[in-house]
Amino acid sequence: MKKKLGSVLVGMSLLAGLMAGCGSSTDNNPAPSPTPSEGNGNGAAPVEEVVLRVAHWLPSSEMSPIIDAYEKSHAGVKIDYVELSDSGDSVAGMQKLDLLVASGEKLDVTFMPGATDYSQRAGLGLLASLNEMIAAEGIDLNGTYLLDPSIDGTVYALPDTLENYFVLLNKDMLDAAGLEVPTDWTWDEYLDYAQKLTTGTGAAKVYGTYFHTWPMYWQLAQINQMKANNLYTDGKQNVDSPEIRLSLELRSKGEKAGTATPYADTISQKLAYRSEFFSKRAAMIVTGNWMIKEAGGSEQFPASFTTAFAPMPSNGEGQPSGVSIANGNFAAILDKSANKQAAYDFIRWHSTEGGELKNVYSAWKEQDADQYINGVKSHALSPDLIDEASLTYVMKHFQAAPLNVPPAYQAQLEQAYTAQTELFILGQQDLETTITKTTTEVQAIVDANQ
Fold it and tell me: Is 374 helix (H, G, I), strand (E, B) or coil?
């Protein structure tokens, strides 16, 4: 996962000290035009160049073509790119951003790699409200983007890329087992597929599925819900729920049936989802769309089989497949920016047309799925091993759950939850004890942060 949903803000104490110097600004207008220069020959005012300082963790080499395209199509705007990480590390990038802001560095635009990073910086007053500019443009935000970035009615950033979840399948193994690529299925059917895809014994055993160690893999039947799809939402915790029980039971059933890689092996051998899937030790994995570009193989994990895609399973008959919590990168304007309108114009472009140029999986509803897939295949090492039909289906039938901006203490909730659910899956406590103890611990964390 490129970034965890519950990533902790680094340097919170450093950022908290900024609040006194980062008061809200209501000036959402561009800087006034300059006074006409004397002796310019015609008395006309010269065009003032707007310089936007844009901070992102992507290396300059990746951003340069996008910046060039924007400058060519927007006369009078110059982008001064601030590279937050030369390796594309978003965590290190956020650390550097915090240091730059704390030192008084003048920035206009910043990108953030997830809802947690976004909500924490918005809460500290570092980001400008976009409400007035959105109203002035007259756009319907929910009609334009798959994610609604509002926080208590205020928009502090635009959704840029999109991160959602689905299932990757080894199509060669599906074909050998006589199974179709699913387009509408339940978790019970997922476990049935896992049973039929499990082959061999001992070191040669291929498991039908692999569940990784991240907290989301203990919440699979919760993150496919439109509402109450996190441990704590809308002032209420959701541990003692049918969705959490189903999440834990499906993982336990897979292990007991011998069709899911044992969690004990996963942690003792430090297994990773990429290697388990591409090394053909697991036939299916639930994963995110950052894996689309890897489906055609990479230097580390060359593709030796066709990868197919299926929507997230539903919790039962009558419930839709393909629903998933969604996250992604966010583009925001620093509250101290003196070029808010120009900055807004840039993040609107970057989150729409710019995303098409970069060929990212975008939160823009008008993204051309076929163009994106063609772009992915044009850079793949083995493009013929990407099952285009199933990928197209998943992209066009995905249903994004409304963005649930997690609380600042999300990482604490996930740590407490995972510690207890691990005991359950390892057979050290039963399900109801796990639910009871987790509920108590989660509520204690919530109360301590109120």
Answer: helix
Q: Residue 219 and residue 225: Cα distance in Å, rounded?
A: 11
Q: Over the stretch 171-193, which tens digit does the pLDDT of each residue have?
A: 999 999 999 999 999 999 999 99
Q: Are 57 and 113 in contact (CB under 8 A)?
A: yes
Give the Å distances, CA to CA, from 178 to 172, 191, 314: 10, 16, 22
Which H or E run includes 110? strand 109-112
Q: Which tens digits make up the pLDDT trace of 385-396?
A: 999 999 999 999
Rounded CA-CA distance 275/300 in Å is: 9
User: Can you tell me the distance from the alpha carbon of 137 to that of 370, in angstroms, rounded to the nearest whole number?
Assistant: 29
Structure tokens at 360: 């990212």
Q: Is the dihedral of CA 180, 181, 187, 190 positive or negative?
A: positive
Low-confidence ranges of the chain (pLDDT < 70): 1-47
For residue 69, report the phi and psi dihedrals to the nearest 5 degrees. Answer: -65, -40
CB 19 within 8 A of CB 121: no
3-state secondary structure at position 288: strand
Q: What tokens were used for 275?
A: 């290697």
What does pTM read for this prediction?
A: 0.83
